[in-house]
């Protein structure tokens, strides 16, 4: 073959490879994002691998696409590895399609390369985003200090001193910190009020505070200062400053670099707030006492691309977002030490008032009768009330469960115990699947989808012994409130299986951060809902697909310890008789294994379980609280090894596989 033929062969192979990659990107967009690509030429292109989610900023992409023609709009959704371009004509879009497809670009501020894959789309939907209000009680003051004053304050910090804070080493990791007035103790999130540090606050800070008092930015002069220095990529875990430790006002001065701080309300609302360089953040009232605040550990922030908004909330406007590389930021955080218990109006998150809250919390008993009553009130009744809204949020199957179902032999009889709205009942058409659930309303939804499902308790399934080739129990067993009842649920699955049959079990994990990876539950941020579309940041794909960790063999010593710790000397499960159940704060790490998890019903439901459209009412209004009630569901979140330890007590089964999957502990069982 001559050189021309060889070149043609190489070109054909390259073109075929590009086409395969392009089709794969098209299928991924449809499967995970609901974006349907078309084969004919349009004015609109979707650019896979060309989004904020994989490090491409607006300036870089806009410069690239403008070389092909007039760009009417460039939409870059937050945290997504794709963008959508609208050209002025189909000819310009076709030119971009031919030019950019398969083009490799180097990311700015990075040595990484990404390859763009382009497809046509029919329509592009977006709308004007309503500006997001700052949390109540939050105030921003821009340019509080001049660049010269900023430089003096930064130079006044003596980082060469060997200041070792023993209790802070685990929490601070690589962050540098200094304390003045009082040392903040990271082991108990408090201060020792009887042991002030010598010297008080630095004089340069006293001058600044006098200025703030004179201007009315603060009402009381602080007596505690924490200086933190963060390199790009470092952050602060979401938290509320301890109520009993400090008074209402908490102020923070950002020096050296700007940054985005995330605020979150217990009901799930989030606000990303831009803190410009040399600006002062003042938190009082609700923003100080009720909302968590934190900084995500990342090297780039998603910010507004235009000059119109460089301070305040970062609105999720897909037409005006870009990436901003972080610099080294030094924060001066001022607080006033509290000398009496906090009596704020937010007792649910107030450590001074938690004792009163526990008196009102439901009792947690270990008796069979009381456990059943607790589940009836905080599981069964709740799912009847929230069924329609719950079902509307449960539409994406989890990949590893789909994989389990698709590997079963054709014609297998499979029972989904606790099937919910039946999202797994139709995954594999070659299986004969039946479902059951304790909620009549959820079973009715299954019926509307033409699935076979019936109402029953997972502890007593009216199906004969050894009649199923496989069973799945997804997010069910953690709703049982004693160790005996959880074990009974596993035993019931084993009863249904034929010898050699398989069961897959998923339960919620205590560990929402595992192998240095946060689960989607902790990372998820609610996206804005538009009239035309909803950007769902809960789904990641392509280069940013979350890894699922397999744990084929668990530490048997840990399993034994977990099992032993759950029993008293007589071998009976200990369940904290007469203890009170804490209410978990959504999207935070678990602090207790037995908790009540809030479900915020959007818009409420009518008697038929149909969702009612939400009203536009103030977030704090009594009408909204009545119209959008909060229900509490009981959960027992499993610690590592606990599910396996329970399964190992049954002689009739063996654990074939165990793993951690995005905040859940999972096992695959085989009946002997």
UniProtKB/TrEMBL annotation:
Primary localization: cytoplasm
UniProt entry keywords in alphabetical sequence: Cytoplasm, Iron, Metal-binding, Methyltransferase, Multifunctional enzyme, Nucleus, RNA-binding, S-adenosyl-L-methionine, Transferase, Zinc
EC id: 2.1.1.229
Catalytic activity as recorded in UniProt: 5-(carboxymethyl)uridine(34) in tRNA + S-adenosyl-L-methionine = 5-(2-methoxy-2-oxoethyl)uridine(34) in tRNA + S-adenosyl-L-homocysteine
Extent of Basic and acidic residues compositional bias: 562-571
InterPro entries from the UniProt entry: AlkB-like, AlkB_hom8_N, AlkB_tRNA_MeTrf/Diox, ALKBH8_RRM, Methyltransf_11, Nucleotide-bd_a/b_plait_sf, Oxoglu/Fe-dep_dioxygenase_dom, RBD_domain_sf
Matches recorded under CDD domains: AdoMet_MTases, RRM_ALKBH8
Location(s) in or outside the cell: Cytoplasm; Nucleus
GO CC, alphabetical: cytosol; nucleoplasm
Fe2OG dioxygenase domain residues: 221-338
GO biological process terms on file: DNA damage response; tRNA methylation; tRNA wobble uridine modification
Cofactor(s) the protein requires to work: Fe(2+)
Enzyme class name: transferase
UniProt keyword annotation of RNA-binding present: yes
One Pfam family recorded for the sequence: 2OG-FeII_Oxy_2
GO molecular function, one term: S-adenosylmethionine-dependent methyltransferase activity
Annotated spans, Disordered: 556-583
Domain RRM as annotated: residue spans: 43-123
Chain's role: Catalyzes the methylation of 5-carboxymethyl uridine to 5-methylcarboxymethyl uridine at the wobble position of the anticodon loop in tRNA via its methyltransferase domain. Catalyzes the last step in the formation of 5-methylcarboxymethyl uridine at the wobble position of the anticodon loop in target tRNA. Has a preference for tRNA(Arg) and tRNA(Glu), and does not bind tRNA(Lys).
Family: Belongs to the alkB family.
Record protein name field: tRNA (carboxymethyluridine(34)-5-O)-methyltransferase ALKBH8
């Amino acid at each position: 073959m001559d050189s021309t033929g060889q070149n043609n062969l190489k070109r054909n192979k390259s073109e075929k490879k590009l086409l395969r990659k392009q089709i794969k990107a098209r299928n991924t967009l449809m499967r995970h994002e609901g974006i349907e690509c078309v084969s004919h030429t349009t004015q609109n292109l979707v650019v896979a691998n060309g989004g904020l989610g994989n490090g491409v900023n607006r300036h870089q992409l806009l410069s690239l696409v403008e070389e092909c023609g007039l760009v009417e709009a460039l939409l870059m959704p937050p945290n997504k590895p794709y963008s959508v371009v609208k050209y002025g004509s189909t000819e310009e879009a076709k030119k971009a399609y031919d030019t950019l497809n398969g083009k490799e670009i180097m990311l700015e501020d990075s040595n990484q390369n990404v390859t763009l894959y382009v497809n046509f789309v029919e329509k592009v939907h977006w709308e004007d985003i309503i500006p997001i209000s700052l949390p109540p009680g939050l105030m921003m003051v821009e340019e509080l200090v001049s660049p010269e004053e900023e430089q003096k304050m930064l130079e006044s910090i003596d980082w060469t001193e060997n200041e070792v804070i023993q209790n802070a080493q685990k929490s601070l990791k690589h962050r540098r910190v200094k304390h003045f007035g009082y040392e903040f103790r990271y082991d108990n999130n408090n201060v020792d009020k009887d042991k002030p540090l010598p010297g008080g606050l630095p004089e340069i800070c006293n001058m600044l505070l006098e200025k703030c008092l004179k201007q009315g930015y603060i009402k009381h002069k602080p007596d505690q200062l924490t200086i933190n220095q963060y390199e790009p990529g470092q952050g602060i875990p979401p938290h509320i400053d301890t109520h009993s430790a400090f008074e209402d006002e908490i102020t923070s001065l950002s020096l050296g670099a700007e940054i985005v701080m995330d605020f979150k309300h217990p009901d799930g609302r989030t606000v990303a707030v831009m803190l410009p360089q040399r600006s002062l953040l003042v938190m009082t009232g609700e923003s100080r006492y009720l909302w968590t605040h934190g900084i995500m550990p990342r090297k780039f922030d998603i910010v507004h691309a235009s000059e119109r908004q460089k301070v305040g909330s970062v609105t999720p406007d897909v037409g005006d977002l870009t990436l901003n590389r972080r610099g080294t930021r030094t924060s001066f955080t001022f607080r006033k030490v509290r000398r009496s218990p906090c009596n704020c109006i937010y007792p649910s998150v107030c450590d001074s008032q938690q004792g009163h809250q526990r008196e009102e919390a439901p009792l947690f008993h270990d008796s069979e009768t009381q456990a059943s009553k607790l589940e009836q009130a905080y599981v069964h009744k709740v799912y009847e009330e929230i069924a329609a809204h719950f079902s509307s949020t449960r539409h994406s199957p989890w990949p590893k469960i789909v994989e389990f179902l698709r590997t079963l032999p054709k014609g297998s009889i499979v029972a989904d115990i606790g099937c919910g709205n039946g999202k797994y009942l139709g995954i594999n058409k070659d299986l004969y699947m039946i479902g059951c659930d304790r909620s009549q309303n959820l079973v009715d939804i299954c019926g509307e989808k033409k699935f076979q499902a019936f109402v029953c308790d997972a502890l007593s399934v009216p199906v004969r012994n050894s009649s199923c080739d496989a069973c799945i129990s997804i997010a069910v067993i953690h709703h049982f409130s004693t160790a005996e009842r959880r074990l009974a649920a596993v035993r019931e699955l084993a009863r249904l299986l034929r010898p050699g049959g398989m069961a897959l079990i998923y339960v919620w994990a205590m560990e929402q951060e595992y192998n240095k990876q946060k689960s989607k539950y902790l990372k998820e941020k609610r996206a804005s809902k538009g009239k035309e579309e909803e950007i769902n940041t809960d789904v990641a794909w392509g280069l940013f697909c979350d890894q699922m960790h397999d744990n084929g063999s668990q530490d048997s010593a840990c399993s034994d310890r977990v099992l032993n710790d759950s029993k008293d000397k007589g071998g009976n499960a200990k369940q904290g008789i007469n203890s009170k159940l804490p209410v978990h704060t959504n999207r935070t790490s678990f602090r207790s294994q037995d908790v009540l998890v809030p479900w915020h019903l959007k818009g409420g439901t009518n008697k038929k379980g149909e969702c009612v459209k939400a009203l536009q009412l103030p977030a704090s209004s009594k009408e909204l609280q009545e119209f959008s009630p909060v229900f509490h569901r009981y959960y027992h979140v499993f610690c590592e090894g606990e599910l396996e330890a329970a399964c190992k007590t049954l002689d009739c089964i063996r654990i074939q596989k165990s793993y951690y999957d995005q905040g859940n502990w999972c096992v695959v069982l085989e009946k002997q």
